[in-house]
Each structure stands twice: as structure tokens, then as C-alpha cells.
Amino acid sequence: MATTHTTKTLIIGAGPAGYTAAIYAARANMKPILVQGMQPGGQLTITSDVENYPGFADAVQGPWLMEQMSAQAERVGTQNIFDTIASVDFSKRPFVCKADSGDVFIADTVIIATGAQARWLGLDSEKKFQGFGVSGCATCDGFFFKNKEIAVVGGGNTAMEEALYLTHHASKVTLIHRRDSFRGEKIMQDRVMNHPKITVVWDSVVEEIVGDETPVLSVTGVRIRNVKTNAETTLPISGLFTAIGHDPATKIFKGQVDCDAEGYILTKPDSTATNIEGVYAAGDVKDKIFRQAVTAAGMGCMAALEAEKFLAALEDSAHVLKAAS
């Protein structure tokens, strides 16, 4: 039977941004409700070793880190609900959000932390080796491929930026592009073409990622096909990075909050506030530049503090009106 939930702060999404927002909101006695969505923990649930999150001298597992954040949020007073928000109405306050289960959430403020997903190639072998040599984030995982040969798939600015970044770690970077020219900025093209560690394979697509299963899953190569000749070759590599873009999880918010041409939510400068008063966005759902767990967590903190300040201002106004009457 459907239930109606009422809260000062509803948090939609359960990654570093959502959990951190929940921790701060709960500690401010806002009694937040967090609706976790389809993938509690976000992209970190498919990240094996996390070495760049502050506070851990040794690498930690991404899923474990998210479990700890979830437990911390619950311990300080967050109500975690496993459900998915299907529609929102931000036309008036309190805001009304409906879930797949039929439950209704009525909230004075909403923090959107639904994140973004890397676009994948859609190969079974790609899914098999995700977190074991296949990655969608060079900044996150490049360190693990020090002095190894790796490949990047893509032909836009993101792919070229990833390839250039990875040259700081890898001994060789092969950039695989399905066309015969890049789509990115000319200055980026020049840097890539003139870099001694980068080789470009044109007119080619990835057909399969190959690797070993014992003693642990690991990538050993990638089978590529030339789209003009259909000739296939296997490139020996230790890691493959897909850089064909990200998709922010903002479908249900379009028409409700302002988004850019790519679907990322727009916020005010130095703020997580959207164009709707009382609605905030944090993490990869609004950040297409850094896309790091630590920056997402920081924005989650900002969103909770801004929501708290907004609610306090409303309460002060209500007290003034009450006194005047």
C-alpha cells in the first residue's frame, strides 16, 4: 500500500553527494529522507580499488566505501529508502515527488544527487572487465596503469584529455577512434598528435576486450575492427578507458529545473542552488568537469548547508509574520 512521507529535506540519489548531504542534513536535525534509486552508491559500486579518497592510507573498495557512507548517514538520523523517484513537481512548495512504488514524498527542500553514468560500448566483455582493467575515468584509475600500455576509445575533447592525462602514468597510450579525424578542439588535436607516448588508430571500433580470468580478472588486449576494410587486429594492452561521454540522470527533472544542452543541471555561481528556490543539485548531476567522489561529497555538504540556511530563513519569516499579526 502506498505511503506518503513528509520531510524537511528529500535527497534523491545515493552516491557520495547524496550520502554526504544526508549526513549534514541529519546532523542539522532536518530529519532527511534519502531515496536511493536504482544504483545505491552510484559509479563507485563498480569501482574496485579507490586510492584517492582522503582518509584511507590503503586502497579501499568502492562498494565498501559507499556502504560506510550509507551506515554513517543512517546512524546520524537519515531515513534510507530503497525506491526510485519517477516524477517530481517543483511548481510549488512543499514539493511533491512520486516513486515507482507509488509512495509520495512531500518535502520543503530537495537535493538532487542522481549522478551521471559513463557511456559504455555495450559489449559483454566490457561489462565483464569493468573495474578489472576497463574504466570510464582516467583521473580515478590511471594510477593503476603505471608504465603499462593502455588504450582510450573516443574522438572528442574528453577522449583526448583522458589520453593526455594517462601519459603521466602509462608507457604508451593508443587512442582508438571510429572516424578518420578528431571532433575536438584544434589545440587538443595538436597536443595529441605531437605527443610521443600517444598513437592514434583511425577508422576503428572495439569488438571485444580480452583478458585472463585467473588468478584474477585482468585485461590483456583489445580486438579492434577497421570500419573501412573490416580487418581485425588484437592490440596488447593492460587497460581500456572509454571516453565517449557521460549522461547525467536528469530525465525526470527536465522542464522542472534549468539544464544545459547536455542535460546537466545548472546552478548559481559558487552554489548548489538551482533556479527553483529550495531545490539544490550536487555531484555529477551538475558537474561535468571534475566528476570525482571527493568533489561530489563536497557539493553534497554545500547543498545540505544551503538547504538548512533556506529553511532557517523561512522559519524566521514565519516568526516575524506571526508576531506582526
Structural description of this entry:
This protein has seven helices and 19 strands. It has 325 residues and is an alpha/beta fold. Strands 1, 2, 5, 6, 7, 8 and 19 form a seven-stranded mixed sheet that branches. Strands 10-17-11-12-13 form a five-stranded parallel sheet, with helices on one face. α1 packs parallel to α2 (62-75), α1 runs parallel beside α7 and α5 runs parallel beside α6. The chain is elongated, with a radius of gyration of 22 Å. The mean pLDDT is 94.
- Could you give a short account of the major beta sheet? 7 strands, mixed
Q: Number of helical segments? A: 7
Query: What would you call the structural class?
Result: alpha/beta
Gyration radius over CA: 22 Å
Intertermini distance: 42 Å
Work out the helicity level.
25-40%
Q: What is the overall pLDDT average?
A: 94
Task: State the low-pLDDT regions, or none.
Answer: none
Strand tally:
19
Q: How much of the residues is beta strand, in percent?
A: 25-35%
> How do the helices and strands follow one another from N- to C-terminus?
EHEEEHEEEEEHEHEHEHEEEEEEEH
Q: Outline, from the CA principal axes?
A: elongated
